[in-house]
Write a structure and sequence with these properties.
The structure holds two protein chains of two kinds. Chain A is mainly beta. Chain A has strands at about 5, 10-15, 20-25, 30-40, 40-50, 55, 65-70, 75-80, 85-95, 105, 110. Chain B is mainly beta. Classes of the chains: A mainly beta, B mainly beta.
């Protein structure tokens, strides 16, 4: 069974630009969560989608947004990029509410210059 | 109250020894406690998880010990091997919101051959 896939793997953007990251969950999984990983703040929850609806949201500004499609694939968008947005963005999938186990993808390394 | 505190930040163990990583939490509503292993350039991989209705869970060389009254849990790696060298994260969540994980800061484990 294929794991969680994320594209692109690496991205370099300039301050003020916007970026869209993509995540394809494990086949059959309907919940997708996004996390930001930085050396200073560690792993922080961004948001979670299930059945195309945002179920949970972390403490991030409105510049960070996401969506989920009917096939459970998800995208996250960051607008007006800041230098501090440089991070590894990780996507995790699970079966859905009440399902404990989350499986992470390899992440997208975003560098903002 | 949402924090999970992890220690130590880094740990060096000789091959064949026991590696022990500790975590403490404050929110007694947490009821799912997973451990993740992350290698450089990879996403976190689910290693082992426990719920507070048991005090210990063992899978191969990996054991979670859970102390509900002290609000602490730990990961023990028996017969540590150089291939275990990685960063380990503890996490916590609510079962109904299991997709929203709160992570510890991570422990960089090095196993010397």
């Amino acid at each position: 069974k294929a794991g969680v896939t994320q594209t692109p793997r690496y991205l370099i953007k300039t301050r003020g630009q916007q970026v869209t990251l993509s995540c394809s969950p494990i086949s059959g999984h309907r919940s997708v969560s996004w996390y930001q990983q930085t050396p200073g703040q560690g792993l922080q929850f961004l948001f979670e989608y299930f059945s195309e609806t945002q179920r949970n949201k972390g403490n991030f500004p409105g510049r960070f947004s996401g969506r989920q499609f009917s096939n459970s694939r998800s995208e996250m968008n960051v607008s007006t990029l800041e230098l501090g947005d440089s991070a590894l963005y990780l996507c995790a999938s699970s079966w859905g509410p009440g399902s404990d186990e989350q499986y992470f993808g390899p992440g997208t390394r975003l560098t903002v210059t | 109250q949402q924090q999970v505190k992890q220690s130590p930040q880094s740990l060096i163990v000789q091959k064949g020894g026991i590696s022990i990583i500790n975590c403490a939490y404050e929110n007694t509503a947490f009821d799912y406690f997973p451990w993740y292993q992350q290698f450089p350039g990879k996403g976190p991989a689910l290693l082992i998880a426990i719920r507070p209705d048991v005090s210990e869970k063992k899978e191969g060389r990996f054991t979670i010990s859970f102390n509900k009254s002290a609000k602490q849990f730990s990961l023990h790696i028996m017969d540590s091997q150089p291939g275990d060298s990685a960063t380990y994260f503890c996490a916590a969540s609510f079962i109904q919101g299991a997709q929203k994980l709160v992570f510890g800061q991570g422990t960089r484990l090095t196993i010397n051959p």
